[in-house]
Amino acid sequence: MILKADAEPAEAGFDADRLTRIDRHFARYVDDGLLPGWQIVVTRRGKLVHVSEYGRRDIEADKPVEPDTTWRIFSMTKPVTSVAAMMLFEEGAFDLTDPISRWLPEFAAPRVYVKGSALNPLTEAATEPIRVWHLLSHTSGLTYGFHHAHPVDAMYRQAGFEWGAPPGLDLAACSERWAQLPLVFQPGSEWNYSISTDVLGRLVEVVSGQPLDEFFAQRIFAPLGMADTSFGTDDTERLAAVYVPEPGTRKAIRNEAFGRTGVGRPAYFSGGGGLVSTAADYHRFTQFLLRRGELDGVRLLSPRTVALMASNHLPGDVDLEAYGRPLFAEMPFDGFGFGLGFSVLKDPVKAKTLSSPGEYAWGGAASTAFWVDPVQEVTALFFTQLVPSSTHPIRQHLRQLVYQALVE
Length: 408
What we know:
The protein is of the alpha+beta class. The chain has helices at 16-31, 78-90, 132-137, 151-158, 171-179, 196-208, 212-224, 256-259, 279-290, 303-309, 320-323, 348-351, 394-404; strands spanning 37-44, 47-58, 63-64, 70-72, 111-116, 121-125, 230-231, 243-245, 252-254, 275-278, 294-295, 298-299, 336-338, 343-345, 360-363, 369-373, 378-383. It contains 13 helices and 17 strands. The longest helix is centred in the first third of the chain and has 16 residues, at 16-31. The protein is globular and about 60 Å long. It comes from Amycolatopsis acidiphila.
């Protein structure tokens, strides 16, 4: 499927001249060598008002970004896994407050880090079980090896979990190994970006009785018409190369290690970051969310469930600055809360953004991003392949440029 603008900007409340600022701004990133190439999609009220591509999907091979280029979306997989879990929730398979050990017995007796080094940690028993909503909201106490911020992060790296998993392990085996590592904090007491959504993917497998790739393909991708989204792809011709910033210059240089991810069928179905997709496919996913769980007559979630997912679940309705750990994530913390699978904008003034209260969003490690604004009925998508996503203020600038063009 190829996306093309199907509405005049003015019909959707946008100023056409102001919309052109988006492409001019991000073209400079490419022309200055900071990004390889990109693809941008903006919609309002379900109408495509701006679709553009620029630069190269593979600089060395001189291959341009095409409308059907495939991208590693990394953590933009997390909302898909969260939708899968909430579909099972709607079927009565579990309550959000249920301990996950009911289905994943390896998490029956988690230990929590107290003090000490990665080689000699002191731990204590968890006073609260890890519950389903803890996984969905990243309040489980789990972590990521790539944070490099805590002794438990180092323990993850020692176990082979930094940007992926040890070779040959499937999701079940990964879950068992994660359960043997201590938690960073007592479940529910803080927010920490983590492998929570990967564990949630394992929960989906056990509860549904299907491998995660099959559940996604049969229950989400086929109904929504997302034919180009999967765990890995054999179509390497369309797959964009991955780049990292060169130290000092920040110029985009090719990275073969990251480039190997997303090629072929993986042993480990990462519900937190394993999908490859296209702009057209993820556009359909955002429209399904904007339409509160339905697209083209197919309903996967009820409107009330989508509203619950897009509500702030941090205790006391605080933002991430107050409740989260100050480390790498796919967004700033000020003014943003967290729902069940997405960030949630609480206070645009505190966040210093033009977006609307209630906007929900997330991004991926290769600088991809999306948001859904249910107030203005705006969705936006940005695709590129530069790791890490914190290299440039792409997401903040995209919001500024989209909303300054909205003049209705």
